[in-house]
Input
Amino acid sequence: MAYMFFGYFAGIIAITAILVVALRNPVYSALSLLVMFFHVAGLYITLHAEFLAAVQVIIYGGAILVLYLFVVMLLNVNRDDRYHSQWRVAAFVCIPLSIEFLVLLSGGIGSAHRAPASLSVEPYISNNTLAIGKMLFSTYLFPFEVASLILLVAMIGAIVLAKRDIGENNAKHMTRAPGAR
Amino acid sequence: MSEFGLRLAISLTQIAAVMGIVVITVLLLTLAERKVLGWMQDRMGPMEVGPYGILQPFADAIKLFFKEDIVPAGANKFLFTMAPVLCLIPAFIGFAVIPWGPNWTLEIGGITVKPFVISDINIGILYILAFASIGAYGIILGGWASNSKYSLLGGLRSAAQIISYELNVGLSIIGVVILTGSLSLVTITDAQAGWFWNWFIFALPAPQIFVFVVYVISSVAETNRVPFDLPEAESELVAGFFTEYSGLRFAFFFLAEYANMVLVSCVAAALFLGGWNAPYPGTILELLGMPSLAWVENTMWFAAKTYSLLFLFFWLRATLPRLRYDQLMKFGWKVLLPIALANIVVTSIAVFIAQHMK
Output
């Protein structure tokens, strides 16, 4: 039963992930990405990580992808303009990825022996949310704080970029608009 | 296998019962909204169909059912068909985790059944938030697929509005989650038993009354109701994202809007107003020697709380003018968000102190 669910979710994830880059209409790409996020959430549920599944749908499906869709619709990208061959970039990205894939596949046989170790995590499964909270605020506190700091910097950067034009127009007598170096 | 069959049959019965109640509530709401608006504006409201117009919802349903189904030229047919469904399913699916009554168990053929709790998943409230955020896709895609500028503008407005106000809904819930230490709606409701000052809107050590207001305002915005109905502002955008929709597809959007109203009212009642708990400990029917009928009183309290919140929606619609778009954004980000954030800080400090005082 568990294998059946995994097979279904994994299959749909693989297909929709390919469709995201293969489809010509950007709105369809975004939608297949949504289907993919949903099935990734399904995978989390089969692993008893309900909190992660809900957060996956709320953040990726509900917030980030809506913004993508927003931009795609606002720009109304012409279908053919965006496509030009990028073989060098593709090779640059794909060769390391395929090497990594091969390494993982060969290493995967060795790690199969470690599978029973996951049984020791069983007590956490009853309250996944609590377990994640405790891990985030004890073991992984530093990476967690660094990640939030990076997000804050990104947010400030976006505000500076967005407000630059307004600042220049409003204060033309100023020698230099704030933030526009 | 017969046990599995019985289990399935019981689950399907529960789902059918909840769906039935929600659809009947929506039918009632369409009539109630027009009647309440009528009375508030010193009119009679619909009076023609049946006595006092009480059969009006059925007349509306029949009219929508037999209307011509128009797909505009140049519309993206696939997405145009998908959008109403994408809007409707998330609106209905959230009811699965709402506790309608006491957390009882019944024995039917050797299987324990919880008649008033369809599913008690331990991330209940996040589940509702997740599907509420998916509902936005129906609106955005409906606006885009119609190939009409009014629809597109309505869809884009709703995207921005729903993302902004979803955040406030999520943050205003956190205070309650801190007080309970659980994300399950069943546990949250159980924690509010006893007198009405145990409801989280009043409960010590941190009354959630401010975020209750934030939650109600944000949920009005999230369901695209007046005074936040900019996605379908009829004086600027014809009818917003469903300008091009007709017949049954329009009915789907309409149904989704009302089902969403019922859902956010149920969540508000369960989170802040004690859910199915009466404002006094226990139930009167239990004191009168009828403990087997106590669930009637409990479910009636839940219904009363939900309907009072729904009445608030109508009241707001009859009272307030629509906000301007920049006012809407400014209000969401500069007023509601800081209140919700401050509440999280205050609540966590209060809970921490209360735990150490013990």
Residues 140-181 of chain A form one domain.
